[in-house]
Design brief:
Structural class: alpha+beta
Number of strands: 23
Radius of gyration: 27 Å
Number of helices: 21
Distance between the termini: 25 Å
Shape: globular
Largest sheet: 8 strands, mixed
Length: 772
């Protein structure tokens, strides 16, 4: 957390972020003095009641801004907080709007006017207050802070700071915010905080027991601010009942998409909003080439002629199907959305990109480029662009915290601003987890691999974030009404053009990263690293869904996954995260560490053949590493396993070769660097041409559920159940997995006080599937 926090003198904080009219005289507001004994006492409840009394008088007397109500919520968690991380959390004081929809939601059945009781409702909180009376739990120095040490150490302080980060993350997940404010209170002293996706700016402390007008001013200024100043996104407005009904009743392409739609509507604590993008953000479908054969990128005109004549870029969204659980970073949120002008369901991804990304390298621009150059099996962009506060395009939404942060200790550079960005795509795709059988799994992976190959060979673009959540299944009907399943390669947010690769970039998530990248964080990301990630994705899915030698030993399986996919080390000279030692050994040795029990299946054969390819590659690039031979593979059988015409046309295109001999036992490996897609493509082609009789391996229930409360579940199952157009990579360390207890002080995902290590791996509803 420390690198993401900056301290600012109170007067400068107020002038820069809470500028407004001066506090009226005492004769106007008539605010009674708060009880100093209670403010400095040990009972947090007393402090909350005193602050609510004062704040409500200020709110009621302020003629500016949207009216607010100060509520004591410390005893009442948000009971709409289901299927989410760290449930049962509650703020001490929550300041809410007073319009009927919000009031009906947060009003407590046991409300007591004298104690200002109400429910915590993350969907409606505007400003929140954290109160501490125990010094060990106070996260900030309040009495004698120094310029370089305004944060306190100790477990209690770190726990509180983690809780505050979680509260902010909850608000960012539920609401459409650019930033939000909070107040940290300890025995008559307080610090204001302004949170955004770059971190938080913390004011120096004020002593409001000695001078109560200071805290009056804080609440007066906040009450005087408009919604944009308070951090509410002006491009998001409440949806009308008519629009909501249109979203509810518009046709869905499949029953699964219909289930996703139902899961996003009528969910307690998730109001329906309309997101307004600019018309210039719309992508002309006439410029795009088909996603694949039999799909026309140009859709029929809307039934409503007025909408056809005046198309806009507005989209309705309800409950997210994925949202990152960190208050900082990209903050990806994904939604099943309703496109108002074309009256159809689409997929919307909302996140904060680094400002350093070249304007022509943004994700939507990359998708448009690929789809105008006949690269298939990547999502169809409908609209994409940075988010602006006004139509003139001059006031882009971006973070402010980085302006006050010290240089990054690792990069020695200034922290970049994060710019708000939205992408809408046509396809609502299913997660790879939903594959029906091993043949479909391999087929979907092959289509995604083809997208990767075409992007590299035609446009010299490398994806750089191959993962199980970024490879998706798309079900569609062709022009003749036949149903097909293909794979999509999603989330091109971290992609690089060949000319840019040497310039360095953000590193993708650990689990599917190549062994060489894990061992050497300074290594340039190469084509072979992406190709290796496809192997790790396949191995990962086999570990989860097919019987192998660890199937009946969940503890060993858990240990294997943690060792091979999540192990983290720290390099001594610069403290850079490293890992991948066990993964590296298996790549050099050319064997599958957890073979399937059905060694005769084409799936197991594919795993062995891919291992042989990378064994040869590592022998070429890491020649000093001794390697071991692998068993001889069975010969190719040419018959296909299904009648998928699109796939068969690709497999019979004449571009596949079978000249890569299987490795004989005890035969020294021939070093061959992997410089193109051909060896991997051939291995997939061999497997997919096997007859259907050999693909009888049965898919099992997810084996990772056997260790539900392990880090594997947090980092893997949740990420792998994310949706299509925006799955989110995780950060380098992970929180404890279990759900929060019912006590108010649930363990924080940021309990160590390090916001940079809070995983951007959120929860997903069962019916969703479109994330990066």
């Amino acid at each position: 957390m420390r690198p993401k926090l900056a301290e600012l003198p109170f007067d400068e904080f107020m002038a820069e972020f809470m500028e407004g009219p001066e506090l009226p005289s005492e004769s106007v507001l008539k605010i009674p003095d708060m009880d100093k004994g209670k403010l400095t006492g040990r009972k947090e409840e007393d402090v909350c009641v005193e602050l609510c009394k004062m704040a409500q008088i200020v709110f009621d007397g302020c003629p500016h801004g949207e009216r607010l109500a100060a509520k004591n919520t410390r005893q009442h968690p948000d009971n709409t907080d289901h299927d989410d991380y760290s449930e049962q959390l509650r703020a001490d004081i929550s300041c809410y709007p007073v319009h009927p929809q919000a009031t009906a939601d947060y009003a407590s059945a046991t409300a007591d006017a004298d104690t200002f009781q109400a429910q915590t409702r993350w969907a409606w909180i505007s400003l929140w207050v954290e109160v501490k009376t125990a010094h060990n739990d106070c996260p900030f120095e309040m009495q004698n802070p120094t310029e370089d040490n305004f944060l306190r150490g100790g477990d209690g302080a770190a726990m509180t700071l983690g809780q505050m980060a979680e509260y902010t993350a909850k608000i960012f997940r539920r609401q459409h915010r650019t930033h939000c404010f909070s107040l940290s209170v300890y025995r008559g002293r307080a610090r204001m905080m302004r949170w955004d996706r770059a971190g938080a700016i913390v004011s120096t402390p004020i002593d409001f027991v000695a001078n109560q007008s200071l805290i009056h001013t804080v609440f007066w200024r906040y009450a005087s601010m408009d919604q944009k100043q308070r951090g509410f996104d002006p491009t998001v407005i409440p949806a009308t009942p008519q629009e909501i009904e249109e979203m509810r009743t518009c046709p869905a392409p499949t029953e699964w998409v219909n289930a996703c739609r139902r899961a996003s509507l009528d969910q307690p604590g998730w109001p329906i909003y309309k997101i307004l993008m600019r018309r210039q953000d719309l992508v002309d479908p006439r410029e795009l080439t088909p996603l694949t054969n039999g799909i026309d990128p140009v859709d029929p005109e809307p039934k409503d002629p007025d909408r056809a004549a005046n198309p806009d870029a507005s989209f309705l969204v309800g409950m997210r199907c994925f949202a990152a659980d960190s208050p900082t970073g990209r903050g990806t949120k994904c939604f099943i959305a309703y496109e108002v002008s074309r009256q159809r369901l689409v997929f919307l991804k909302d996140y904060w990109r680094p400002e350093t990304v070249h304007p022509d390298r943004r994700e939507g621009d990359v998708l448009k480029l690929l789809r105008t150059r006949n690269v298939k099996f990547v999502p169809t962009p409908i609209a994409a662009g940075d988010v602006y506060n006004s139509e003139d395009g001059l006031d882009v939404q971006k973070t402010r915290t980085q302006e006050h942060l010290n240089k990054d200790k690792t990069t020695k550079r200034e922290h970049p601003a994060q710019v708000h960005y939205r992408l809408v795509v046509k396809e609502i795709a299913r997660p790879l987890d939903d594959h029906h059988d091993p043949y479909q799994l391999v087929k979907v992976l092959f289509f995604a691999f083809e997208a990767h190959r075409q992007a590299w060979e035609q446009e010299h673009i490398i994806h750089r974030d191959i993962s199980a959540t970024n490879i998706l299944m798309f079900v569609y009907k062709d022009e003749k009404g036949r149903t097909w399943v293909i794979g999509l390669l999603n989330d091109w947010e971290l992609c690089k053009f060949l000319d840019d690769i040497k310039k360095g970039a953000t590193r993708p998530g650990r689990s599917f990263m190549s062994a060489r990248l894990l061992l050497n964080p300074d290594k340039q990301h190469e084509l072979a690293d992406d190709l290796e990630s496809f192997l790790h994705v396949l191995r990962w899915m086999c570990l989860r869904f097919y019987e192998h030698r660890l199937t009946h030993s969940p503890p060993e399986l858990r240990d294997h996954v943690l060792t091979f996919y999540e192990a983290i080390g720290v390099r001594r000279d610069d403290h850079e995260d490293t890992g991948g030692a066990q993964k590296y050994i298996t790549m050099c040795d050319g064997y599958n560490p957890v073979p399937l029990l059905d060694s005769d299946s084409p799936l197991d054969e594919l795993l062995r053949n891919l291992a042989s390819v990378f064994r040869a590659h590592y022998a070429a690039v890491e020649p000093k590493k001794p390697v071991k031979p692998v068993r001889k593979e069975r010969q190719l059988i040419e018959d296909a396993a299904d009648s998928d015409l699109l796939l068969q046309s690709m497999l019979s295109s004449g571009s596949f070769t079978d000249d890569e001999d299987d490795v004989e036992p005890q035969t020294p490996v021939v070093a061959q660097e992997l410089v193109n897609h051909t060896p991997i493509r051939n291995a997939f082609g061999k497997a997919l041409r096997r007859p259907a009789s050999l693909w009888e391996l049965k898919k099992m229930d997810d084996q990772f559920e056997a260790f539900e409360k392990s880090p594997v579940t947090q980092r893997s199952i949740l990420r792998s159940s994310q949706q299509s157009a925006g799955s989110k990579r995780a950060a380098e360390s992970l929180p404890d997995a279990g759900k929060a207890s019912s006590s108010r002080r649930a363990r924080s995902t940021a309990a160590a006080g390090d916001l940079t290590s809070v995983a951007e791996a959120g929860s997903a509803v069962d019916a969703s599937s479109n994330v990066d």
